[in-house]
Amino acid sequence: xxxxxxxxxxxxxxxxxxxxxxxxxxxxxxxxxxxxxxxxxxxxxxxxxxxxxxxxxxxxxxxxxxxxxxxxxxxxxxxxxxxxxxxxxxxxxxxxxxxxxxxxxxxxxxxxxxxxxxxxxxxxxxxxxxxxxxxxxxxxxxxxxxxxxxxxxxxxxxxxxxxxxxxxxxxxxxxxxxxxxxxxxxxxxxxxxxxxxxxxxxxxxxxxxxxxxxxxxxxxxxxxxxxxxxxxxxxxxxxxxxxxxxxxxxxxxxxxxxxxxxxxxxxxxxxxxxxxxxxxxxxxxxxxxxxxxxxxxxxxxxxxxxxxxxxxxxxxxxxxxxxxxxxxxxxxxxxxxxxxxxxxxxxxxxxxx
Length: 353
Ligand code: KG4
Ligand code: ZN
Fold this sequence. Notes:
Catalytic activity: L-threonylcarbamoyladenylate + adenosine(37) in tRNA = N(6)-L-threonylcarbamoyladenosine(37) in tRNA + AMP + H(+)
CATH architecture of the largest domain: 2-Layer Sandwich
Cofactor: a divalent metal cation
Keywords: Acyltransferase, Metal-binding, Mitochondrion, Transferase, tRNA processing
Oligomer: single chain
Shape: globular
Number of strands: 10
Strand order of the largest sheet: 3-2-1-4-5
Helix content: 40-55%
Number of helices: 11
Protein name: Glycoprotease 1
Bound molecules: 5'-O-[(R)-(carboxyoxy)(hydroxy)phosphoryl]adenosine, zinc ion
Family: Belongs to the KAE1 / TsaD family.
Number of domains: 2
CATH topology of the largest domain: Nucleotidyltransferase, domain 5
CATH class of the largest domain: Alpha Beta
Distance between the termini: 35 Å
């Protein structure tokens, strides 16, 4: 019986993450260093700054992941690292670190696709989850509907033609003057609970398109116009806003969320129909990526999935947002099938990556 132990490293965006998992699906350690403070100060990710922030903490994050798992490099079976998609400056920091760990302990390397990792972590969470299954991936940069037929065999049924839903959440939070020290999504979700979701009439995107694609740019514009019409001043924090203004902001947050998620529901429903035509044995819809940590999103999609006679698999929030566990696990799945690179040569020059 195999017992594989894989270190995963993730630096594609603004979090520096590392984790160790084994082939029983046990998470031996998980470490994340977030750039939330930087993000709040500059109102978004600036690649050069993010790269420096990754470079500053990467050694410590990886060391901590090994220490917490009570392991050293020589106990590992392989090293997995996100190789894309993402900010190339940031990805490099993770890849360089992975290569140096792998080369110093003579370990194989597995390059991991970030969105595949968001998808496959569901198989660590739900050990019964077999291929083929459907997946909805919702994050800051991606909005995908996928039919996962087998490991490495994916059919994309839909994507966004402009922005992803996470981007719409983030802009809505910014324009509503919400606290951005954590990402915008959770702030909008929280404020939406105080609002009337039917008070502002936003149009559901792409009603007339009979496909599985998404569009959030138009909804973003609708939200911006509604905020301007209500004369909401994002310079005034929510805490200092009058009761009346707080209510106006909450109403916009709730109305935005309702329509943003309705769009997901409609396209998911169609994608499940398409998916079942191709693979009638599908039993599950996986929902993952940062936005999948939203409780309203989870509840609404659970309804869709039930209507279609399927089961929803949604990882816990800590595994939905960017993390090292999903990378380690995806690396492990590929490694098991012999899909990996040999250990990199020792003393390789830094710019060889
Ligand atoms: O997957 P992720 O951590 O990073 C990317 O690969 O993009 O997703 C980040 C996105 C951000 O847009 C963030 O605002 C959103 O996920 N997000 C949420 C929630 N938590 C994170 N959106 C809505 N509700 C949430 N609770
Ligand atoms: Zn992500």
